[in-house]
Design brief:
Strand content: 5-15%
Helix content: 55-70%
Number of strands: 10
Distance between the termini: 69 Å
Number of helices: 24
Oligomer: single chain
Radius of gyration: 37 Å
Shape: elongated
Strand order of the largest sheet: 6-7-8-3-9-10
Structural class: alpha/beta
Length: about 600
């Protein structure tokens, strides 16, 4: 219950007004329910005691005290009913009481509906807020977090786990706010009717509560395992969609089907056990409730038969109220089964929501809106986990210069450029822009200075216009077209069905590799950053596409400071300085001609490509 209350404290406060309304309507519904059932007593008295003679005298309301309140109200209600019988007859009095009961029921059901209607904005709002917070957290977390997490697992938490929170925790909100009020109101009524009988009854309630709680704790453990297997299922689906071409090329459909069936069956077996355990809630609470009614019927019946402060009609009213309290208790027990499933999912969601973000703005960030002098790597070392990827990097990149990074795969080229926009933070040394440590800059200001063109053009399932203007607010049609022309993209965009309003499909799937790359270059041109990072931007293209993209890149690189990672050494011959990385260190540096004369790593790489 503590975990559940923590969830409520985190997400419910923005909806306090709805919470107050639902509590008010629930109290109103409970009170109306009690008074409507109270009509049973005069109905039974009329049916079985129709003498029509006044048996009690009216007690003046002024004589009522706190201790005699119940007795006075009960006595005067009996007097009123007896007067009605005397004046109008038993049959007419039954009709009057029946109409009163119908009116009270109308009010009760209206209050019941309003109590449920006012909880819906809380349920739907909290789930929306969790999804929003998850998405915002995903976009704010550093790239290092996602290198340790599977995409399928994150998707499963965003979809399956949030859905489980909605169906388990949020759907239980209504019964959790409604049922405690009903239980308290009904229980108070039972005490007023007969404290001796109620004292006997509550002996069984803690036993039932403990048993339900025990089963609920077991259910949570099973639910955590089931949701973990659901993540495995989603991860395999995501892998399959990404590698469908290879699966077909290697005739591995059956292999993948068996793999998926294994994970899916394991998930089915676990969720089956969870659901079977959950389905125990209703029959178990039904049996325990009936057992309690039987015991109370025996004990209360003894009190009535021995004429010990309890009349027959009052005992029937007591049993009706006791049976009424069983339904809220059953609903409460159902919630005690549902909520652990939701809390298991909440734990998995919190692994993202509560993940530490070590790439964040300093308390008092320095602001920068232009790049004037140089980028400097000063004694920089970086490691993933325990493995050092970069060691003792010292590099100065002057404004307007083009620096190329070359080396074998795993030498640390991509990691080095990722340190400039602060996708990662160094463990040793510092990265400076115009003499300011990037850690001291506002992240938004820093990344506003930098444009990226990657080996894989990352595009979105949107129009050409929206993809090109992605990083620029309020870009005009003219500005977007100008950027596309510089990137050699305007012609093929205009040849599409709706020009710049044409959707390019998921990840730009309707375009060729060269077209995707030119759209991403147009995006960088429109942003117009003073610093440009090129990560093997032409390595995956054919000769014709490479020529068009290289031409677009040369236009983009004019007047900009460029850091280029290249495998094709032919594309960086004109760089102002080429840095050769080997096992995380810069082992050679200089222009192309000088490096060729050194007859070192660079010349070996060049000769292998030639």
């Amino acid at each position: 219950m503590k975990e559940f209350l923590k969830v409520l404290r985190r997400f419910v406060p923005p909806y306090k007004k709805y919470l107050v309304l639902t509590v008010v309507f629930n109290i109103l519904s409970a009170l109306l329910n009690i008074f409507s059932f109270m009509t049973i007593i005069p109905i039974l008295n009329i049916l079985f005691q129709t003498s029509g003679m006044r048996e009690t005298d009216w007690i003046p309301w002024s004589e009522m005290t706190l201790s005699t309140c119940t007795d006075v109200v009960s006595n005067n209600a009996n007097c009123f009913v007896q007067d009605l019988v005397f004046d109008w007859g038993a049959a007419t009095t039954l009709l009057i009481i029946g109409l009163f009961l119908a009116f009270m029921t109308f009010l009760k059901t209206g209050a019941y509906f309003l109590s449920s209607a006012t909880i819906i904005p809380i349920r739907t709002g909290v789930v929306r807020d969790i999804r929003n917070q998850l998405y915002q957290k995903i976009t704010s977390l550093p790239l290092g977090f996602f290198s340790e997490e599977r995409k399928g697992d994150i998707i499963a938490r965003m979809s399956g786990d949030v859905q489980e929170i909605e169906t388990s925790i949020m759907s239980s909100l209504d019964m959790l706010f409604k049922n405690p009020i009903l239980i308290i109101a009904y229980f108070a009524t039972l005490i007023v009717i007969s404290w001796q009988l109620t004292l006997f009854t509550i002996i069984f309630v803690p036993i039932v509560g403990w048993f339900m709680g025990f089963v609920g704790r077991k259910l949570k453990a099973k639910s955590i395992k089931a949701q973990s297997l659901w993540s495995d299922t989603m991860s395999q689906v995501e892998e399959t969609l990404g590698g469908l071409r290879i699966i077909k090329a290697f005739n591995a459909e059956e292999k993948m089907n068996r793999r998926f069936n294994h994970v899916n069956t394991a998930y089915r077996n676990d969720i089956m056990r969870v659901n079977i355990r959950q389905s125990m809630a209703h029959p178990m609470s039904e049996f325990l409730g009936t057992l309690m009614i039987v015991i109370v019927l025996w004990f209360g019946g003894s009190l009535v038969l021995n004429k010990m402060a309890l009349s027959g009609p009052t005992f029937i009213y007591y049993l009706v109220m006791l049976y009424s309290i069983i339904n809220p208790l059953k609903e409460f027990s159902k919630a005690s089964y549902n909520i652990p499933k939701g809390l298991a999912s909440m734990e998995r969601v919190d692994k993202i929501l509560l993940a530490e973000n070590n790439i964040k703005d300093p308390k008092h960030p320095k602001h920068i809106d232009s790049f004037e002098h140089q980028i400097e790597f000063r004694n920089v070392s970086f490691k993933y986990g325990e493995q050092w990827v970069l060691r003792d990097i010292n590099l100065v990149i002057e404004k307007g210069k083009t620096i190329a990074l070359v080396g074998q795969s795993g030498s640390g080229k991509s990691t080095l450029v990722d340190l400039i926009p602060r996708y990662y933070d160094v463990q040793e040394g510092e990265v400076l822009i115009d003499g300011i440590n990037v850690r001291d800059l506002g992240i938004h200001d820093l990344r506003q200075l930098i444009g990226n063109v990657n080996q894989e053009a990352i595009l979105f399932n949107d129009t050409f216009f929206n993809n090109i203007s992605f990083g620029v607010d309020n870009a005009t049609q003219q500005e977007v077209e100008q950027a596309a022309r510089i990137a050699n993209a305007h012609d093929f965009i205009m040849a599409s069905e709706q020009g710049y309003d044409t959707s390019i499909g998921d990840r730009g799937g309707r375009l060729s590799g060269g077209q995707r790359q030119r759209v991403s270059i147009a995006r960088a041109i429109l942003k117009n950053p003073p610093i440009l990072i090129l990560d093997e931007a032409t390595s995956a293209l054919d000769t014709e596409s490479e020529r068009l993209v290289q031409d677009a890149l040369e236009r983009l690189m004019k007047t900009r400071t460029t850091v280029a990672i290249a495998h094709r050494l032919s594309t960086i011959k004109n760089a102002d300085e080429i840095c050769v990385l080997h096992e995380g260190r810069i082992v050679e540096r200089g222009p192309h001609d000088m490096l060729m004369k050194m007859d070192g790593y660079y010349k070996k790489l060049h000769d292998m490509q030639s």
